Amino acid sequence: GAGLPGAAGEKDGIDDKRDPYKPEARGVRESRYLKEMEERRKRAEVKPPNDWDSEADEDEEGDEAVDPLFNQRVHAWVLVRGGKRDVKEHVFIEPSTGKISPVGPSPYHAIEAAWNHKNYWVNMQEPGVAGSIPNISFDFADQEKWEFVLIDAEDGRGGTSTASVGLDEASADAGEVDAVAAAAAQAANGGPGLEPDETGGEQILEEPPSWVDKLHIFRDSYELRYPPEGSRTVLYKKAKLELYTPNRHPHGLVQRLTTYVDHNMTVVKEVRDEFVNRRDKLSSRRRYPLESKVHEFFLPGRPAPQPALKERVEWYGHRLELHFYVEARLDGLVKRIDEMGSRVDEYYEGRGDRLTYMSVSVADREAIEPGDRAASTLFLLEPMGMNQLSIVKMTEKFSRNPDVADAGEDAAKRTFYVRQGTMREQYHYADGNITRETKTFPTTLRHSNVQQQQQQQQQQQAQQQTTQAAG
Compositional bias (Basic and acidic residues) spans (predicted)? Predict the structure, then answer.
């Protein structure tokens, strides 16, 4: 019994029925690469959470699932009927977005009525039933499906007029009723109408007088536009629209659209202002608080100090761009870019001296070492709310002069290195050349500040007087 297999296992209380010589089943190997790519694809399909979304927005899906006003809202859209002008089928156009959708899978539930510039048709095919649009017939000539309201004076019918519907052909046999309707329409427009023997002395269509008095609106009420205070505020999703009566706002504001990052409308993303009748010709302004950016647009005719200004873009404390109406400026200035505390770039067009570009590089006066050889030759600029700046480099660019035959003698770029006291002049490329001539000249630029020159002269005179007194 001791030599039987499994005896030791039974003795120890362990029932081992596995064959120790049988290889383990390894199964089908899985590719870790394919598994990782599948996980990446699933993560990409999941929409990343928006940090700006409020907690209330998490319940939006649940709110939309239970809509108490489902199939009760009234909307108007455009129907384009097929058959003419290469339109093969009926389509709908959403006015708010311009999206075109076929009649079958359209987002609309039902149609109650349709109208154009001449008539109004009431849908008699179970109007208001959700999902009934694909089964609706758009044959407005069929009076059992579409009941017209007005009688067309042109051909006497409400539903078969080609001019009224715009697409269907009118029926040739209008019938006796249509003749009566046509005569009634003529009578309504001042025509002869029906004879007594044709209708038994009775008119088919007689328009009653209006039951409301003639409308009178005072001029002040008409100009107010948004009573009672001349303004109106409309709230949208992540947006707020403010409307103002023209010439009522002290700054000429007529419209302000504010868009927000979050649904609670606490973080402003963009503010768009529209103006009218401003003295400075400002027409619109766009502000981006998160970027510290302001973009302004001006109409032609702006007065000084910035005449002919077209656009103004400013990043507070960093950059300022000015765009001009070139035809209204004598110097041909197109654009000016001011990198505050660094450099100024100007672009020109149509100048007689062929100047197309000019830049000035500046540096902080305090950053210049006192022992610098060119420190006394730097041109100082007014502080203008910051540290005193000094010009360290100036550049000018010119277009090709057709009067100069040799391109090697026509200057293309001049660069003044104020610190080094040199000027480099580069010439235009000659035809077929990949290099151009360059010349370097020494300059004797000195400070142009008259007050500092006078102070230096006074100090020198005082030193001379002190020396003479000591002698």
Answer: 9-50
Output the CA–CA distances (angstroms, integers) from residue 23 to 5, 6, 16, 27, 173, in the order listed: 20, 20, 16, 12, 94
Quick: pLDDT tens for 229-253.
Answer: 899 999 999 999 999 999 999 999 9
Structural domain includes residue 471: no
Do 276 and 416 sit in the same domain of this protein?
yes
Do 107 and 254 share a structural domain? no
393 and 302 in a single domain? The answer is yes
- Kindly state whether residue 284 falls inside one of the protein's structural domains: yes
Q: What CA–CA distance (Å, rounded) separates 230 from 340?
A: 41
Q: Is residue 222 part of a domain?
A: no
Note the pLDDT tens digit of each residue in 252-307.
Answer: 999 999 999 999 999 999 999 999 999 999 999 999 999 999 999 999 998 888 88
Do 388 and 280 share a domain, yes or no?
yes
> What six digits make up the tokens of 156?
């006497």
Domain that holds residue 172: 78-189
Q: Per the structure block, which two tokens stand in for 464?
A: 């001379």
Domain count, the chain: 2
The answer to whether residue 470 is domain-embedded is no
Predicted TM-score (pTM) above 0.85: no
Neighbours of 394 (CB within 10 A): 19
**Which residue, among 334, 380, 372, 386, has the nearest Cα to 355 in the 3D structure?**
334
Spans in the chain with pLDDT lower than 50: 1-11, 13, 55-56, 58-59, 62-63, 128, 159-181, 183-185, 187-190, 193-194, 196-203, 373-374, 447-450
